[in-house]
Structure formats: structure tokens, C-alpha cells
Amino acid sequence: MTDSYQPPYTITTEILNQVAAISQAIGRLTLLTEQSKALRLRRVNRVRTIHGSLAIEGNTLSESQITAILDGKRVIAPPREVQEVKNALAAYDHFNSLVYEHQAEYYTALRTSTARTDSAPFITFMLRMILGAMSTATHQVTPQVTPQVAKLLAALKGPMSGSELQAKLGLSDRKSFRVRYLNPALADALVDMTIPDRPSSRLQKYVLTDKARDWLAQRKSEG
After folding, report:
1. Which residues form the domain of 83?
2. For the whole model, what pTM was predicted?
């Protein structure tokens, strides 16, 4: 009868401790991987939700363009549509933060709905969070208009070219006109291009956006 096999090493306390430490490290890595997957999934869902919501309103930006805006990258698209995406992202983030701040109420609403077999308490809670997020977002998107942009908005009557606007404002320096007046108005989605896919077209003209008209109306009512 042969002796049982004996491996050529001794299992020491240090070896056992190292194996245990490695097992713990693997567990942590697995958890981090799962968290990373969850974050990616939430990011994808966030982009898809915003894309679907804005598409209904006529926004033409794609999911890849929305992702680029989320990453802080420049996107060649109508400024108004880019601003709509930024506003939607802000509202989405604020909604999540509101739910996080009201976690106790969130779980209470879930338990109450489960106990009653009626989702009304949970729906009421979620609607209150949505309203809170939208109210805050509305205040956040109120444009901070500089005096120069305000003059441009007041001067812009119907489609006008850059040279027409510059002349109406009585400005001789084309660079100053674009840097201090036109470009900020475009960046804040207060002015739209009539040919957005060809920004430098000689036929390019500019028009007020709904956001600009709302601001002008509010300014008139206050003044």
C-alpha cells in the first residue's frame, strides 16, 4: 500500500493569510466591476431617456451626440437643441439628487403602496420629486443676458444676416460684434441660424428663438 501524496511544501500561517487576503481582494474587484457595469447601464438609460423625451418635442440630436454633450465635448448642432439637452441633463440629475435626499420618504411610499396594493402613494411621491426637479430646472435655465446680447435681441427683427445686425447695432468692429454679441447669443440658444449645418454660409441669417422671445416678453412686463 503506497503512502498518500504529500505536496513538497508546508502550509504555513502566512500562506493561509495571503490566500485569505487574495480572496478578499477578488471579492472587492468583483464588487467594483459590478458597480461599474451598473453605472454604465444607468448612463446608457439616462441618455436614452433624454433622447426619447426630446425627440418627441422635435429635437434631432442623436444618442451619440447627447453622450458627447454629457462628456463635455463640442457638438455641431443647432444651439437651441444643444441647450435643450443640457437643460434635460440638469433636470435629470436634479431629480435623482432629490430622490436621494428623500430616501426615507421614497421607501415609506414603497412600503405603503405594497401594504395597500395600491401604487398611488408611490406615484404621488415620484410626481412631487419630478415637479421639484422641473421647478428648479426652470429657474436654472433663465438666461443671464449681458447688455450686449440684450441689444442684439432687441435689434433682431425677423431673419437678418450678420452684417445687417452689425449695421443696425452701429458697430464697426466685426470681431467685437461676433465675440461680444452674436456668439454669446448663439451659445445661450437665444438666437438660431437659418442654415445650422453650414454656419459660415454667405446666405446665413439669424432669428430669435422661443427662449429669446420669452426673455424679451418678461423684460417688457417687468419694465
Report:
1. 45-140
2. 0.45
Of 121, 140, 159, the last residue of a domain is 140
CB 155 within 8 A of CB 165: yes
Cell of 87: 437643460
Per-residue pLDDT of the chain (223 residues; tens, 9 = 90+): 556 777 777 778 887 888 788 788 777 767 666 665 665 667 778 888 888 888 887 888 899 998 888 888 888 888 878 888 888 887 777 777 788 788 899 899 999 999 999 998 888 888 888 777 766 655 555 567 889 999 999 999 989 999 999 999 999 999 999 999 999 888 888 898 998 888 889 899 999 988 888 888 878 876 6
SS3 letters across the chain: CCCCCCCCCCCCHHHHHHHHHHHHHHHHHHHHHHHHHHHHHHHHHHHHHHHHHHHHCCCCCCHHHHHHHHCCCCCCCCHHHHHHHHHHHHHHHHHHHHHHHCHHHHHHHHHHHHHHCCCHHHHHHHHHHHHHHHHHHHHHCCCCCCHHHHHHHHHCCCCECHHHHHHHCCCCCHHHHHHHHHHHHHHCCCEEECCCCCCCCCCCCEEECHHHHHHHHHHHHHC
Residues 127 and 50 in one domain: yes
Q: Are residues 77 and 157 in the same domain?
A: no
**Do 103 and 81 share a domain, yes or no?**
yes
